[in-house]
Design brief:
Layout: H1 4-15, H2 20-25, H3 39-43, E1 52-56, H4 61-72, E2 76-81, H5 84-97, E3 102-107, H6 113-125, E4 132-135, H7 153-180, E5 184-189, H8 215-240, E6 244-250, E7 253-254, H9 263-273, E8 277-278, H10 280-283, H11 285-292, E9 303-305, E10 308-310, H12 319-333
Parallel strand pairs: 1-2, 1-4, 2-3, 4-5, 5-6, 6-9, 7-8
Antiparallel strand pairs: 9-10
Helix pairs in contact: 6-7, 7-8, 8-12
Bound molecules: NADP nicotinamide-adenine-dinucleotide phosphate (NAP).
Length: 334
């Protein structure tokens, strides 16, 4: 098997070459996987039976498939969900498919800092190790709304909720990695839509301002935040020598409940660009690859698409912007 950093270098070289043609044809990249690979295929033969994972928003769409595949490989999975009834139904369904699957459910509303703190507290009370954190939950293109903490809803749910959750669980992850000598992994679900953000990348001075609000740009801004968060956290963890990696992913285009605020537009787009879309099992592949695959040992602070390293937008590579977002977010969660 190739060593992690050798593979990373090779993937880095290939990153710029993976593109539109690969997406459409499903041609495999340096990792040996591509846009048509499924979550099950990228996880084939990986023993996750000693791992515990948290998947936010694990009761539907990409998150649900991620939970199913992690559980198939033997991982103990904790689903963070705001709709407990749906999550219970999902658990029942997975247990029918995989008898003996270890799945727990804890209430989590990422748009509320109080709920995020309660989730972390309840998880800690379970006395479980924590190897993998998948920051998957998200909302897209919703009309302007403030969260209970007074933050614009995309920013609150997609970024600040996950920023706080990750901070609260980081000691568990570091401790688990140290005790077990198994690398911890954090995966942020971003999107290619991070490229469609506001003019300056992040609207720090007007984050909660309704004037000039665009549902598309607000989503793009929150997905840019997911990449910058992964980058800055990975830099800090490397500096500390912590055995935990952090990466971000674009899962592809997949028709899920995410489209609830833009169903007509998305159906219209899909009608003309069906060849660019994936099914849910392909949509969860990049997440599972980055969370589980041994080739990515030690790879941190990178952005992945179609199961291969990719290059984010210039804002997504802006180290100063990443630091600024970190400081801004830290003040908000305090
Ligand atoms: N689908 C795509 O084409 C696509 C493309 C690029 C990136 N992504 C990213 O992939 C991730 C997963 O999306 P998906 O397509 O699987 O969408 P999805 O099916 O709607 O799943 C999103 C999950 O997040 C949960 N969620 C939303 N708001 C929450 C909150 N405040 N607290 C807790 N959970 C919350 C949802 O719960 P409810 O069921 O209760 O709403 C749902 O379980 C998102 O981060 C999205 O930005 C998706």
């Amino acid at each position: 098997m190739r060593k992690g950093n050798e593979c990373a270098k090779e993937q880095g070289k290939m990153a710029s070459r993976m593109g539109f043609i690969d997406l459409v044809t499903g041609r495999r990249g340096a990792s040996g996987f591509g846009s048509s690979s499924t979550a099950q295929q990228v996880s084939e033969g990986i023993d996750a039976s000693k791992l515990t994972a948290i998947v936010t928003g694990g009761a539907s769409g990409i998150g649900l498939e991620t939970v199913r595949v992690l559980a198939t490989q033997g991982a103990h999975v904790v689903i963070g969900a705001r709709n407990l009834e749906t999550a219970m139904a999902v658990k029942k369904d997975i247990l029918c498919q995989i008898p003996g699957a270890r799945i727990d459910i804890l209430p989590l509303d990422l748009s509320s800092m109080e709920s995020v703190r309660k989730f972390a507290y309840q998880f800690q009370a379970l006395n479980l190790p924590l190897n993998i954190l998948i920051n998957n939950a998200g909302i897209m293109f919703c009309p302007f709304k403030l969260s209970e903490d007074g933050l614009e809803m995309h920013f609150a749910t997609n970024h600040i909720g996950h920023f706080l959750l990750t901070n609260l669980l980081l000691d568990n992850m570091k401790k688990t990695a140290k005790e077990t000598q198994v690398e911890g992994r954090i995966v942020n679900l971003s999107s290619i839509a991070h490229m469609l953000t506001y003019k300056d990348g992040m609207r720090f001075n007007r984050i909660n301002d309704q004037s000039g609000y665009s549902d598309k740009k607000a989503y793009g801004q929150s997905k840019l935040a997911n990449i910058l968060h992964a980058y800055e956290l990975s830099r800090r963890l490397k500096e500390e020598g912590a055995h935990v990696t952090v990466n971000s992913v674009h899962p592809g285009f997949i028709m899920t409940n995410l489209m609830r605020y833009s169903m007509t537009l998305m159906r219209f787009l899909k009608f003309f660009s069906g060849f660019l879309w994936k099914n849910v099992s392909q949509g969860a592949a990049t997440t599972c690859y980055v969370a589980l695959h041994p080739d990515l040992k030690g790879v941190s602070g990178k952005y992945f698409s179609d199961c291969n390293e990719a290059t984010p937008s210039p804002f997504g590579r802006d180290k100063d912007l990443a630091k600024k977002l970190w400081e801004f977010s830290t003040k908000l969660v305090k």
